[in-house]
Structure prediction request, 263 residues.
Amino acid sequence: MSAAEKYVAAAYGVVFVFVLVWVALIAAKLARLEREAADLAELARTRQPRGDA
Amino acid sequence: MAAAIAMIFFVAPEDADQGLSQKIFYFHVPIALTAYACFGLGAWKALRVLWTRGERYDLESYTAIHQGTIFGALTLITGAIWAKASWGVWWTWSSNQLVLFLVLFLFYCAYFMLRFSVEPGSRRERISAVYALFGVALIPVSFFAIRLANDFIHPTVFTREGPQMTGTMFTAFCVAWGAILLLAYLMYRVELAGKRADQYLRDLREALTA
Prediction:
C-alpha cells in the first residue's frame, strides 16, 4: 500500500468512524428514551384511579 | 453515498498533479460546505427564535449547530490528512483559509460552553440565538478568505471562470456533495427527533410527579 493510498484510506475511514460513532450514540440515546418511556407508562398506570370492582 | 464512492474511485480520473491523494477532495470540500450549511441553518433558526420567540426554533438551531460542529471537526481532520499527503505537514498557520476555518470551528465550540453555562429558559434561548447569528458572519469571511488574501498554499478550485476540474470530476464532486448533504439532513432530523422526544418525556415526568 502506497503512502497516498494510506492517506486516502485514513481520510475516508475517519468519516466512516465518525458516522458509526454517531449512530452508536443515537442508538444508546434511543434505548435510554425507551426505558424512560416505559418507566413513565408504569408510573401513569399506578397513578390511574381504579374503577369499581 | 455508495454512488458517490463509486464515482470517486471508479469514474473520476486521477488528478495529474496530486495523484491519488486528490480523491480526499471529494469528501473534504463537500463536508466543509455542509458544515457551512449547518451553521447557516442554525443562524436562520436563531433568527426565527428572536423573531417569533418560538421555543422549537431554539432546539432546531442548537441541533443544526451541533451538526455543523461535527462536520467542522471532520473538515479539519480530513483536511489535515490531505495536507500531510500533499504538502508534507499536518497543519500550516500561513494559510488564511485553514486558520479562519479553525476560528469558525472554535467559535461554534464556544457556543456550547455559553449555552450550557446559562440556565434553561428564554434568556438562554435569546443569548444562544444572538451568538449563533454573530457566528454566521464568519462563514463568508472563511469562504472567501483565499480569494481575498491570495492564499497560494490552499488551492482554489472554484474560481470566477468556473470549477477548475474536468466534467467527470465535477460530476463526482456534485454527487458526493449531494450524498453528504443528505447524510447531514438525516442526521439533523434524527437528532432533532431524539431531543424532542427527550423534552416531551421530561415534561411528561414533571406532569406525572407533580
Chain A touches chain B at residues 2-5, 7-8, 10-12, 14-15, 18-19, 22, 26, 29-30, 33, 36-37, 40, 43-44, 47 (CB under 8 Å).
